[in-house]
Specification:
Order of helices and strands: HHHHHHHHHHHHHHEE
Distance between the termini: 68 Å
Number of helices: 14
Structural class: mainly alpha
Mean pLDDT: 90
Low-confidence stretches: 252-265
CATH topology of one domain: Serine Threonine Protein Phosphatase 5, Tetratricopeptide repeat
Radius of gyration: 22 Å
CATH class of one domain: Mainly Alpha
Largest sheet: 2 strands, antiparallel
Length: 265
């Protein structure tokens, strides 16, 4: 950036992005690009634009924007950031193995670059790699990576959720419930998507442990959360109904007077 004023605007745009105001940050980064002349500044600004677009769910536009970046105009740390953003786009497009390979290759590059080893992007890549290992079914590799994600990492909630999912797949239900509980305990600090998933998966884990009353307590909280996802809603209701049925075999059940849900006595 050429002037102090531009630097201050850039830093303000970064703060907007970090606060989740991706649309406003994107507009500011695009304005800054129109005011910039140096190729390295333009490349960096487009990288930040790509990040905003990915977080906004604009997958196609993010892919187009990163394609306009001249990677060799970026510094070494930002070139790693480029690989990180590319991996995020591939993940959003559900090319999970491609995304994993990209993140792993970028992590190898970091090992050889002392300026990148302790950077934020190095932490982001490690977290993303752990999440992708979980999503590609490589739970034995994912678990030690995800267990190291610090709570201050912006990706901690999703990483901890995936850690619980890996424990669940390995039938370590008690450990999975603890991981989900860590996410739930953060309350409103966690994105609602991850919070609801943690509650849902806790219910499923309690069900598989045969603790049906606890499963019901969890699933009742989120049974109306998935109107836009009929298959997921159906799955939740099926487990909830089965939990009630299991309890009927050993206790008295009546209908809740206001919600219509069944209560165990």
């Amino acid at each position: 950036m050429e002037t102090q004023g531009l630097l201050e605007r850039f830093e303000a745009a970064v703060r907007k992005m970090e606060s989740g105001d991706y649309s406003a940050a994107l507009a500011e980064f695009e304005l800054l690009e129109s005011l910039s002349e140096h190729p390295s500044d333009i490349a960096l600004l487009r990288l930040f634009q790509t990040s905003c677009l990915t977080d906004m769910g604009e997958k196609s536009e993010a892919r187009n924007r990163i394609g306009t970046i001249q990677k060799n105009q970026l510094g070494s740390v930002d070139q790693i950031g480029y690989e990180y953003e590319y991996a995020r786009i591939m993940r959003a497009d559900e090319y999970l193995q491609v995304a994993l390979d990209l993140s792993r290759n970028a992590l190898k590059s970091i090992e050889d670059d002392k300026d990148s080893r302790n950077s934020t992007v190095a932490m982001n890549l490690s977290t993303l790699s752990g999440i992708l290992l979980a999503e590609t079914g490589k739970c034995d590799e994912a678990i030690p990576v995800l267990e190291k994600v610090p709570v201050e990492d912006p990706g901690w909630a999703e990483a901890t959720l995936k850690l619980g999912d890996c424990k669940y797949k390995k039938r370590l239900y008690g450990e999975a419930i603890k991981n989900y509980g860590d996410v739930i305990s953060r309350g409103k600090e966690v994105h609602p998507i991850f919070l609801d998933a943690a509650i849902r998966n806790t219910g499923s884990a309690f069900y598989d442990l045969g603790e049906y009353a606890k499963a019901i307590d969890c699933l009742e909280l989120i049974k109306d959360k998935y109107e836009d996802y009929p298959s997921l809603k159906s799955e939740v209701l099926e487990i909830l109904s089965s939990a009630y049925s299991k309890l009927e075999q050993g206790g008295n059940v009546q209908m809740h007077p206001s919600t219509g849900s069944r209560l165990v006595q």
